[in-house]
Amino acid sequence: MAWYLYRLGRWSFRRRRIVISFWIGLLLLMGVASTTLQGKTSDTFTLPGIESVDAFELIKERTPDAAPDGATARVVFQAPEGEKLTSADNKKAVAESLAAIDSKNVVGATDPFETGTVSKDGRTAYSTVSYATQSIDLTDADKEALEKSPEVAEEAGLKVAIGGDALQEIPEQGLTELLGVGIAIIVLLITFGSLLLAGMPLLTALIGVGIGVTGITTATGFIDLGSSTPTLALMLGLAVGIDYALFITSRYRHEIHVGRSQEEAAGRAVGTAGSAVVFAGLTVVIALAGLSVVNINFLTQMGLAASATVAIAVLIALTLLPALLGAARKRTGWGKVPFIKAPDPEDETVGTTAGRRWADLITKHRIKALVGGLAVAGVVSIPVASMQLALPDDGTAAEGTGPRVAYDLIAENFGAGTNGPLLVVVDTKGADDPAEAVDLAAQKVQGIEKDVAAVVPPTPDPADEKAVAAYEAQLEGAQYATITVIPKSGPSDADTQALVDDIREAVGTVEADTGATVYVTGQTAVGVDISEELAKAFPKYLLVVVGLAFILLMIVFRSILVPIKAVLGFLLSVGVSLGATVAVFQWGWAADLLGVDTSGPVLFMLPLLLTGILFGLAMDYEVFLVSRMREEFVHGRPAKESVVFGFQYGARVVTAAAAIMIGVFGSFALGDEIIIKSIGFGLAVGVLADAFLVRMMIVPAFMALMGDRMWWLPRWLDKVLPNLDIEGESLARHTGDSVAGTTPERERISS
């Protein structure tokens, strides 16, 4: 592989105009396509085959005009201090505002004065607006009518806030994300000391991200994608794009330093560092694409989109970067910063580097370093034991936004549970006495005392003959009835999640007693069901992704212990990442520093998403750092010395790469959107732990402790596994370098 990549690097260097024109042309083409074909995004979380979703399907099947999972909006009105909404003028203003909401897809808007959704002091009321379609399918006219509806009430002096998913906003990138780019520029300048060399990794990364994100935006015109999908692709594409180009550029500078020509240096940089980039990128792609095994559309889309962006970053690093180096020729030192010294880590004339001193310290005190690193990782991971998962809701929206104001007003005046009612659906199709089955189900639910604020059974007032007739007709025709349960706690609270299980347990005997089937649904129940399904799918995901990566790493490093150590180190990084995330977002520790207004359960998909992304990134550092150690080992150095020298040569560039990733991910953690904020924070902490605690402390300590045994591989397995040549042995043979391909150490360890 090294030889083919070497040839690709030299070809790109020579055919720079063709290569640069291709990538720029593709960027422009995707940009035009995204502006003309762009569609809408949706954050609807569904998973076929779970109880809560089956209940929605039952309602739609029996009553086709109903839309139980359609978009909803909650319009909250509040009168000024000293006034009441029940006054004639205010009541009229509320009615006119609700009438203005009427549009094509509106099923109905409840009248708070008829439904009783007016607070005890008479100042606050809310109306629930139901739509026939999900938020992604709402027309511009639907949304415009909803947005303008408060105007009449506001002119009358009322405060109006709109919550729910009908006005679902798409996360936008702001100034905080530019902070990550700024950090990347500073790190690259310190690493290379030249404006031109520092700018190349950033330029190639931005082109790759531009192609990836515009491609995803174009895809929204054909398929439904989550609103966070482009942002995740941007986050990952920018981070890995800079890092991959950084590794190749660093190797190019070294080859120039030892006297190679520009074209030869570009070829060798792509042939050596490029091999590590290919396998590092492949592990990231495997980890992200592996999210599809969970069978949740939202996660599958995010994983595939992000993995495609990473693949583009790899291709650009292997082709566009050497083409740009060819265009720059001898001007790569242009823009040299006079006060920054950026020596080649492999230049032994500059004296002992910080990386060498650190490697000597760790290998000398390897047992203490190993135990200390494990202890730190274990302590930070403790909060994971109390982690709670939930769907995001308006209660986690940024403070001051419409959804958050509406949520808080309802919680303060009607109870937090009013923001997330549960729906109990009684399927009476198999019941001998449908009315009796519904009554029994209602009694079972009403018997639950913990965390139940109110139960609204479907049975009408016997004195209301029309209501009774309609109820009986529904039982006879649609053959189902619904019971509404208002919890005391908020939608994402642990008590509400427990209530879902309590209701299911309470109504568990209804089918045996009456023949009716009872379902518990609602957005909170959907979140509980999806979280449970994720927990079931998680072992399968780990088995597939970790298993494939283990095989890949065993082929790359030709060792049994290296991939085992890599996987165990990754688990430590995930533990630290999730532990810190729970401490900040669930426990509220230092939440104010990140702008987290309200602590609560962790985003339901975060553990799986962080695991997938961090696994790929952890393998990045494993490949980049340990491949350099292996290169030293197979070229003749003893095992302990190969750790020290490999660390010395690779530490500077790995440190720079990690700093860039932390800066990029950390900048997203400063945004307002809670999903992106939690993902950015978790990834920043995970990279910090993996790069500096695991790969630069625990790994070298463990490898020094194991010595030659680290590179042991059974001879029969060595013959079976393909030789992917990540150390560049084939390149050395083709170019005539006097570098041994197989040393006595390797022969002995393989025996």
Automatic annotation (TrEMBL):
The keyword Transmembrane helix applies. It comes from the Bacteria. It is a multi-pass membrane protein. The keyword Transcription regulation does not apply. Keywords: Cell membrane, Membrane, Transmembrane, Transmembrane helix. SUPFAM superfamilies: Multidrug efflux transporter AcrB transmembrane domain. This is MMPL family transporter.
